[in-house]
Amino acid sequence: MSRHLIYGRFGLKDTVAIPSGEGEVSTAVEFVQATKRLDHGIGTALDELSVMGIYPSEIGVDLLVLAAHIYAADTRISRNTESQDNWTRELRLVVPVSEPIRWNAVSDILQRMLNFLTGDRWVLGFRPRPNGFEHFVAAKPLVGPQPAFDEVSLFSGGLDSLIGAIDALEKNTNPLFVSHAGEGAVSAAQEALFRRLEQQYPNRSFKRLRVWMSFPKELVQDVPAEDSTRGRSFLFFATGALAASGIGRPCKLNAPENGLIALNVPLDQLRLGSLSTRTTHPYYIARWNDLLHELGIPVVIENPYWDRTKGEMVAACANSAFLKKVLPESLSCASPTKARWKGHGTEHCGFCLPCLIRRAAIKGGIQGADPTTYTLANLQASPLKTSGAEGVQVRSFQFAIARLVDKPHLASILIHKSGPLTDENSSRQTALAGVYLRGMNEVGNLLKNVKTSPS
């Protein structure tokens, strides 16, 4: 087990000493190569935004640079080898920023939100950008139209973000969609769905910003990479906030996610803590809004579907015919490439937690058969072994659902298991308990005649 320091450098002349602590492994990440252009997809994102007439604030650029540090640490430092408990790492960042005093003032908010998001122990420090790098954003032209976007919306390639996009376009809003292009299957789904939206709404002027960011697997010397990517949502939100900081007026950043997944209540004792993702948990979104307020970025993050199940989202989609047509191209699976050993291409496994919630939602939300291709096509064909991947999540759901059927009042208690809800008033907490109960009932209807066995 080792503690790790990740710090950014802005070019060869950036030689400020960053001392490491006792027993701390230190890794530098180069953010500026031969020119004064930011690397790792950030410079390209700024170029794409300027073409759209969007000129972000330097604080917004700092936010994406910070997100890149977080993403590098999260994906390139193995939990198995670098933690005492195979999960919790000790990670310190030192980030070059435009206003270190402002950033150091929000370090406590950042540490709380990151500790909650990834289950690690984070320490953050900030230093001034080196001379010559005070400005990365071109000056906004004195004459020219304001950006035409009403809001910013995260676009992941999943079913929820697809519904969010359709609903927004059907309401005649003009969103700027934001995506992170990393893993190949996810990127392909994003691309395919966005092209479908362009074809469906040809007279609209919505756009999309994609940030291509990845780091070499050998970034941290002699340390394996990490596959869990719990910190990826920070990069996702930071990209949206960067774009929103240049729109020129206060706006919303929508994070479309059904209420059951947003809460992500552990199904059993084995899914406590960061084994359950917290990407859109209400506590995490509240900390983001605290951070943006303190940084002076005029955007508020909202999940417009916090009180709806996935099935309710599907059923209420503002263009159900179009949704049904493009639904198979959305990607919900936790590991869409794991069927390659069976000779299959990229597809939904059909038995991971997000696949089960997707199947339940489509079963209850649309008329007719589910058009999605699943590796495990029929959950009822034979008993699913709980000792293997195909049965473990099914059995966990069955256990949790049976508990709720017997004692439905437990919903108001269980929703607190995945994280604090102290920012939510009593009526919202009641609504959260309701969406949790309804969402579990949706999955219960899917699994009604599914059998599991221990071997």
User: How far is it from the N-terminal to the C-terminal residue, by CA?
Assistant: 35 Å
Oligomerization state of this entry?
single chain
Largest sheet: 5 strands, parallel
Radius of gyration: 22 Å
Low-confidence stretches: 271-275
Order of helices and strands: EEHHHEHHEEHEHEHEHHEHHHEHHHE
> Which structural class do the helices and strands define?
alpha/beta
- Total E-strand runs: 11
- The neighbouring-strand order within the major sheet is 7-6-5-8-9
Inertia-based shape:
globular
The amount of helix comes to 40-55%
| Average pLDDT number | 93
Put simply, the count of helices is 16
Give an account of the 3D structure:
It is a single chain. The chain is of the alpha/beta class and 455 residues long. It has 16 helices and 11 strands. The chain has helices at 42-51, 58-76, 79-82, 100-105, 107-118, 159-170, 184-200, 232-244, 259-263, 282-295, 310-316, 320-326, 353-365, 389-406, 411-414, 426-446, and strands at residues 3-10, 24-32, 90-97, 121-128, 151-154, 175-181, 207-212, 251-254, 299-302, 384-385, 452-453. Helix 7 (184-200) links the parallel strand 6 and strand 7. The longest helix is centred in the C-terminal third of the chain and has 21 residues, at 426-446. Residues 271-275 have low confidence and may be disordered.
